[in-house]
Amino acid sequence: MLRLRAICPFSWRVFQFRTCSCKPLISQMITCTDEEQVFDLIEKNKAILSEKQVECAFNILWQFQKQKTSFLKNVECIRDHPQFLTLHNLATSQMEFMNDDTLVNVLYITQQCATEAHDLVAALVTEAWRRLERFDINVLSKFSSCLANQHLYFSPLMGKIADIVHRNLETIEDLRSLSVLMVSISSLISQRFQEQLVNKTEHLFDTIDSSQVNVARRIVQFLRNTKYSYYPLLEMCNKVFLSNMNHLDLDSISKILSLYHFLQFHSFEFVKMAKKRLTEMIPLFDHPDGFVKLFVALGPIAGPEEKKQLKSTLLLMSEELTRQQALAVMRAMEEMESRNSHLIKKIASILHKHLDNYKPIELLRITQALIFLHFQSKELFVKLRELLLRYLKISVIPSEISILVYALSILPSPHLDEVGISRIEAILPQCDLNDLNGFATSVLRWIHYDHKYLDNTTGKQLKLLQKLDHYGLQRLRKYNNLNLLREELKSLKGDWFAESLLEETAGGLDPFMLVFLGYSLAILGYFPEDLLKAIFNIKFLAKMDSQLEFLCSSLNMKVQFRLMELNRAVCLECPEYQIPWFHDRFCQQQYNKDIGSMNGAQQQIYKMLAEVLGGTNCVKASVLTPYYHRIDFECILDKRKKALPYGSHNITLGKLPEMHWESNTQITGSRLPPGAERIALQFLDSRAFCRNIPHLKGKSAMKKRQLEILGYHVIQIPHFEWNSMALSTKEARMDYLRERIFGEGKS
After folding, report:
1. Which residues pair with 714 in a beta bridge?
2. What is the 3-state secondary structure (H, E, C) of 207-239?
3. Rounded mean pLDDT of the chain?
4. Distances 300 to 23, 250, 275, 445, 623 between C-alpha atoms, Å
5. Strands across the sheet with 620-624, in order?
6. Taking the alpha carbons of 560, 562, 565, 570 in that order, is the dihedral positive or negative?
7. CA 7 to CA 420: how far, in whole Å?
8. CA distance 569 to 458
9. Is 625:669 a contact under the CB 8 Å cutoff?
10. What is the distance, to the nearest Å, from the Cα of residue 669 to the centroid of all Cα atoms in its chain?
C-alpha cells in the first residue's frame, strides 16, 4: 500500500482534493471582493470544479451585479470575460449531476447575467422539463419565473406547470411560492381555476408576515393579469402596503399605483401616504432614470406646489431624456392636465426626433396626449400621419389596425385614402364587436370631415360603413350565449352599435334572446327605437307567447320578468316612443305572492329611521312605487326638511306591511304639498355591486334612474358603508342617516 502511494503521489493528492477541498474553495469564493477574484479561482480550479462550486460561482457573480449601479455595463463585463465561457462550459457538462435547486438557480442567474447564452439556457430548460414532476413548490415557482423571463407564457411547458399547480393546489401551503406561480401561469388558467387560486390565497394570507410586500404585490399583479378586481384580497394586500410604506421604494410605489389604477381599486389612504413618501423623494433624484419614474408616479396625485417643482426640475434635464422617458412624461402630463406650454413643446420635440422608433400603440398614445394637451405643430402631425399610414399598410392584426385607424381619425384634418380603406375591408371578417365599433367611430369622424369639405371619398367611406354594419350583424347573430355577448358589449363606446347595427337585428335573433338583449342594452342606457318597436309588436309578442309554454318554468318566468322590466324601462326612460305599459296585472300577481320580510340590516335601519324622522308614522317600509319598483323605505320631507307623517300604520319587525294597490301610472310627487320631497332609501347588499368591488351593477343604477324619474330623491346605503368600522356604533349610524337625509351631521 505504501509503495502504491509512493508511485502515484500526484493522483492520490488530486483524489483527496476532490473529496475534501470542496468546502474550502467555496469559502474562498465567498470571501472574494470582486469579479476578477472569482474568475481567477475558476481559472486555477477549472479541472476540478464540482456542480456545487459552479453554482456558488454563479451566485457570487450575481450578487456583485446586484450591488452595482451601472447594471448593463457590468453584465457585459461578466458576459465577455474569458473565464465566464469556462463557467458556461462547466455548467453545461455538469447539469445532469446538479440537484433540482442548483439546476434552476444556475438557469435563473444565467438569464440575468448572460443574455447571449442561449445554448446553455436551452439546455438547462430542457433538463428542468425532464425533471418537472418531481420539483418541489419552491423550485417549480422559480422555474416558472425563468420561463416568464423568456416570455414563454403560452408555452406547453408553462401549461404543464399550470396543470401541476392545479393538481396539487390543496397541498400547497407556501404563499410566497404560490404567488410567483400565479403570476407566471395567469395567462393560461380558466375562470374556475382562477377562483380556486384566489380562495387558496385568501386562506393562506394570514400565514405570511406583514412585511411580505413582494408577496402582496405579486397577488395584485395576478389580479391585474386576470382582470379580476377581487375586493377582499385587494384590501388584504393594501394593508400590507400601508404597514410597510416607509420601506417602499419608488419602483414599488409606482408599480402599486399602476396596478390599482388598472383594477380601479381606490385606496385614499394609500394615495395619501404614497404622495407624502414620493414628495420626500424629490430631492433624491437628479438623473432622468429615477426622476422620470418619480414624475410619472407623483405627478397625477401631487398638489400644485409639488407639480410646479416636478415640472421645473424636469425642464432642466429634458435634453437628457430617452424616447421612452419622453413618452412616459407626455402621458403623465396628459393625466395631470398640464398646461405648461414650454415643457409640452420641449417633450414634443423629443418625441418628434424619435418618432420613427415608436410602435403603433405608442404612436396612438402620443397622438392622444398631443391632442388632449392642445399642442399644435403641422410638421409633427404630418410625420405622425405618415408613420401611421405606413404601419397601416403592413399590419395584419385587427386590434393593431383598429388602433392605427383610430389614431388617424383623431389627427387634425382626418382623412383616409383608398389604400387605408382597403386595409380595413380586408380585416373585417376577423374583427370582434369592439374592433368593428372602433372602425365605425373613426369612419363616422372621417365622413363628417369629408362631407364638410365636399371630399369625393365620402361615398367609399359610406360603403365601408355599410360593410361594418354587415359584419357586425354577422358577429351578433353568432352569439347564443348572452354572457359572451355582454363581455363584448361592455367596452363599446359611441352610437354606431345602438343606432345603426341593432336596427337590423330584430328579425334575425331568437325572440327570447332579443328580449334579453333589449334588457341588457336598457341597463347600459341604450334604447334603439327600431329594436324596441320590433319587440313591443303584437306579432312578435304573440310569437313569443306561443313559445313560452315550451320552456321550463324558471326560464319561462325569467323571460316574462325581463320583458316586464324592459317595458318599464321604456315607459319611464323613453316615453316619446309611446310604447304602452301592459304589465299591471302580471306585477300584481307576482308581488301579491311574496310580500317577503326584512333582513337584520333593514330592521336596524327601520328602527333608526323612526328615531331620526320622529316616529314610525314618518317612515314607510317596503313601498311599491308606480310601475312596481319596490323600495326599502320611504319618507316625505316638507320644504323645511321636516318629516311629514303618514296615516297610522303598524309594522311587526321582520314582516313587511300589507300593500295597498294604487294606480300604477301616477307620478309619485304629483300629490305632495308644495316644496315637499319624497325620499327613497335603499339598502344595497352585495348583490347590488359588481363582484368583490364597490361598483354599482347596471340593474341597480337603472333602478335609481327610474326612481328619480318618478320623483324620488334616492338615497342608497351600501352594505360596506353600513357595516364598516366607522359606523360600528348606533350613534355613528344615526349621524350617517341624518347626514344622508337632511345633509347634517350630529344632532
Report:
1. 680
2. HCCCCCHHHHHHHHHHHHHCCCCCHHHHHHHHH
3. 83
4. 54, 15, 10, 31, 45
5. 620-624, 630-637, 677-684, 712-718
6. negative
7. 86
8. 38
9. no
10. 42
| pLDDT tens-digit readout, 443-497 | 877 776 665 544 555 677 778 878 887 888 777 767 655 555 655 665 566 555 5
pLDDT 10s digits, 152-195: 999 999 999 999 999 999 999 999 999 999 999 999 998 889 99
d(CA 122, CA 107): 9
Per the CB < 8 A criterion, the answer to whether 306 and 279 are in contact is yes
Estimate the share of the chain in helix, then strand, then coil, as percent rounded to the nearest 5: 70, 5, 25
C-alpha triplet 199, 200, 202: angle, nearest 5°: 65
Q: Which three cell numbers stand for residue 656?
A: 313587511
Strand-pair category, 630-637 with 677-684: antiparallel
Distance CA 177, CA 180 (A): 5
Going by C-alpha positions, the residue among 347, 354, 355, 297 that lies closest to residue 319 is: 347
Count of CB atoms situated within 10 Å of the CB of 104: 26
Average pLDDT over every residue of 50-66: 81
Residue 593's Cβ-count burial label (10 Å; 0-12, 13-18, 19+) is: exposed
* Alpha-carbon gap, residue 634 to 714, rounded angstroms: 10
- How many angstroms separate the CA atoms of 258 and 88, rounded? 38
| Banded pLDDT at 7 (limits 50, 70, 90) | very low
Q: Which of 623, 686, 616 is nearest to 653 (CA)?
A: 616
Beta strands in 163-274 (DSSP E): none
